[in-house]
What we know:
The chain has helices at residues 4-18, 23-26, 30-40, 45-58, 62-67, 70-77, 84-99, 108-112, 119-130, 139-149, 158-168, 176-182, 186-203, 225-238, 243-249, 255-265; strands at residues 241-242, 269-272, 275-278. The chain has 280 residues and is mainly alpha-helical.
Amino acid sequence: MVNKDDFQKIVLQRGRELYRDMPWRANTDPYYVLVSELMLQQTQVDRVIPKFNAFVGKFPDVGALAKASLADVLIAWSGLGYNRRAKFLHDAAKKVTAEFNGIIPATLDELVSLPGIGPNTASAILAYGFNQPIVFVETNIRTVYFYHFFKDAQRVSDKELLKLVAETFPIDLELDAMRKTTGLSYSRSWYQALMDYGSYLKKQGAGQVSKSQHYVKQSPLKGSVREVRGQIITALTMRDMSEDELRSIVTTDERFPLALQGLVDDGLISRTGLILHLTK
């Protein structure tokens, strides 16, 4: 186990060595950070970057996103999966426009009032979009702390982890070297370093995510209802069609009615007579 000062030095050194260039780091506008955080939930950075660039090219700010139809948003989102995230993002943009004068809010309470934004996502937006000194955890951050402080532990709660993250947060640490590398200041730079170092550790097989009491293994996509949901959305981005036609394209097994009804219940697709289409 390392001490606090050595840990900070290690994280910052590894952060400089492993720094990853991303469009939402080059431009830390809170809207860009909001979009990236929703996209990065359960999706790898390499897959997100091209979709992010295309998405903000089509919807360059929160106002443009709010004015768009959900169908257009789902089409731009297509390929990322977990399409409810696209609806959450669209609904969040509409709420920001209606209730916050089109400005992404800069407090935790206001951010968690937005659809699809929980405490950790809100904290990430505050750290990356507003450079606020806030304490939070997510998978890569857990990985770094597990590796350095909990090697022999079997199960670790986020409560334990958050206490340690707060204790090691470099409020007074001079980050001149990091600023020279990234042009960023301490909170944003610290969490970016943790993220990049954590990503590296996971690739080296040192992820140890199962140590977390909050870890739930993601079910396989293949053969799941989630797989069919994605196929239905993808098909309807091409054109509207009847349920029978859609079923013939996607699947005829028992997952289809469950997937279809779930998408209707979530407000992602609608019916007009006998025709199914993405919700306008």
